[in-house]
Structure formats: C-alpha cells, structure tokens
Amino acid sequence: MKYQQFTAAAITALSSAAIVSAAPRPLAARDSAAGDLLGGVLGGSKSGQATYYTTNGVQDGTCSFTGYTLPAGIFGAALSDSNWNNAASCGACVQVHAPGGKSTKAMIVDQCPGCGENHLDLFPDAFQDLAALSVGVLDVQWDIVPCDIDSPISLKAKDGSSQWWFSMQVVNSNLPVKAFEVSTDGGKTWQETTRTSYNYFEKSGGFGTPNVDVRITSETGEQLVVQNANSASNAATTGTANFKA
C-alpha cells in the first residue's frame, strides 16, 4: 500500500487550471483478439483521473511483486481501491489515454487507497508519457489490454508456503488471472484455491505434497498448465508459455 503523490484532498484543492480534461474521443483500436475479448469481459474503457507517486510500487506494492522487474516498455501503476476487487487486476496491463492523443502502458502493481473510482496513480515515467509532472492530475481513459510479454509465465510461492499451507501467485502474465487450480494427481482432478487481497492464491491445510500441477485461467478463458510447480517457501517455477496476446 502506498501514499500517493497527490492525496484525494489535494486533488480537490487543485485549481481547475491544473487539471487537463480529455474531450471524448474514440480510443485506439485494439490490435489483438485477446484485447477485443478482454474489453468485452471486463466492461470496456474506463474514465477517471491519473496522478503519480514516487514510492517503489513494484517491490513494496499491494500486489506483492517483490523481486519482479517490469518488462521493457511497461511502467507501473496503482489502481484505486474502489476497483480493487480483491486483487483481481494485479498484473493486468492498462493502456492509458490522455488529451492530445498521448498514451502509455502500465501494469497494475499496487493499490491506491481513497483515490476514487477508476483512478490510476502512475509511476512518474508513465505519467511523463502523458504530461509534465507539474500538471499533477489528468483526466484519462484507460483499457485493460494484453501486456505483450514475450517470456513465459512464472509462479512464486509465498514465504512460509509448504505442503501443509499453500500460497502461490502468478507473475509475468500477459492477461489478468481469473482462476488458479491445483492438481496432485497429474491433472485428473483439479482443486480450487482462494484469491487474497494481496495477490496470492491460497489453501489452508495445503495439498499434502510440495510439488503440484497448476492450471491458470485468464479473464478471456484461456488456460495454461504449469507442471511440477514447487510450493516450498519462496520457491519460483517458470512455465513454458504465456497467454496469447
């Protein structure tokens, strides 16, 4: 959880001259079938405001992406707690559109408490793609889009995870994750896990074995299976593929 560069009270106090409003305009066309499907499933474009903050939201953010490095060309962002939905957007990428046709891509890595619905608190480099930092607050439109990551998906077990208490997250995904299931019998049956607000999928009591198969379902319905994932404390397992962009 982070403190914003501009708090909700500060935003209210800003003069109208400091706020750049985006006139209604068509957004750039999505360039993939996955993008089209994401728009339909997740409700399409959102209108809100964007600010920026300077704390390291990747390493210290509510999405718990400690140790992760953002892919080239993707910045970071904190999403309003009004849109948080129990961390369902963690790792999702957003294409943010500002006045004058400028845009930037950012990954949701953190939560922005008290920011208001559809608000994005961007990393400074992302905000500077849209406007000078001195502007402070922008009216923006944004869509959840595929991240276009070339490398495979990765799984990370939480500190303390074991065969008796299971806790694992998805990292480096091209698409938002909808479901996370575990199999201990080679994929014959699958067991559900519970998503947490800090972006881990858990099962109290664990699965009785340190190595499991994991089936991940994206918001578009695509599925990936990672075999022999290590659920031991802080273990990382790299998959062989990523969701199609």
UniProtKB/TrEMBL annotation:
Keyword Signal: yes
Family annotation (SUPFAM superfamilies): Barwin-like endoglucanases, PHL pollen allergen
Keyword terms of this UniProt record: Signal
InterPro entries in alphabetical order: Expansin/allergen_DPBB_dom, Expansin_CBD_sf, Expansin_CellWall, Expansin_EXLX1-like, RlpA-like_DPBB, RlpA-like_sf
UniProt signal peptide: 1-22
Domain Expansin-like EG45: 60-152
Source organism, top-level taxon: Eukaryota
Record protein name field: Extracellular cellulase CelA, putative
A Pfam family it matches: DPBB_1
The keyword RNA-binding is annotated on this UniProt entry: no
CDD domains in the record: DPBB_EXP_N-like
